Amino acid sequence: MKINELSKNIDNQRIDPVYLVQGNDQYLQEKVEKALLSIIPDDQRIMNVGILDFEQTTMSNILNEVESAPFFGERRLVIVRNAKFLTGERLKQKVDLDGLVNYLNHPEPTTVMVILAPYAKLDGRKKIVKDLKTKATLINTDSPSENEVRGYVNSDIEHNGYQIDNNGMNLLISRTDANLATIMNELPKLYLYGVDSKMITEQAVSELVPQSLNQNVFDLINALLNSNIKKALDIYADLMVLQEQPLRINAALLSQFRLLIQSKILSERGFSQGKVAEELKVHPYRVKLALQTSRRFNLERLEAGYLGLVDIEHQLKSTTRDPQGLFELFLVKFNNKKKI
Asked: What does the sequence similarity comment in the record state about its family (predicted)?
């Protein structure tokens, strides 16, 4: 189930006893939580809403909350955040899940239990995961595709009485890596900027929305692979002026080259763009850009770039050499290799 269907169900009072909200998109997780909170009237929330963090409580406390009756209200809402017991991650202490399994078989009719699992993947081998997937209502909050991001953004813009031109939307997507939470945080500035015209333009986005480190790194790598040494140096220098740490810049470059290599290998094995994103657990928009770039270069050239950056990382950690000088030397060496 998607957020839109959930909202319609809540409006029509079709409310289920247990919800599992799974996916790693922060904005969608928060939007789903807010929608479910609306089940309880404002004046009843102090007594009839319980919010627990699994990392800071026990399963016994969680079960006590869901088994409690509402106080002067029709329903009680219990939200359990950070449900790590559904993943393959090792927990600090053993969790007795028998009580939760029993609860799923006989949930309290006046309680709405919401389990938030902000993870890309759950451990499907676990009995509790299997039980939840069959007995709870599943709400998907996976990272949305680029088209879905555009849909959410357009919906918010129209809801606030604004419009955005195509160039403005494209630049907004590019500068934020199509990250929905980032975009939603930037929109209030754009609304204020265009309060008179009710129009969000490319110029407004250019002036108000900073380009992410990932996007700067992507532009830098494209310049590097296309032997545009001056542009690559200019972007690196700009990042230094913005006080980005050399090790952080290099780590981002390594991550992007790794993504280019992995995307190319998987694509050549027949993986679709969506399957590549799923396999690598990377935002679909980043995979789209990576595939567009990696198709133009052979694997040997991409690996040469990656290994050169590994060498920079070693020198940054073990010597006092100037970071910008190391990067310039890397550019020269890399540019002297055979280009495809």
From this structure: Belongs to the DNA polymerase HolA subunit family.
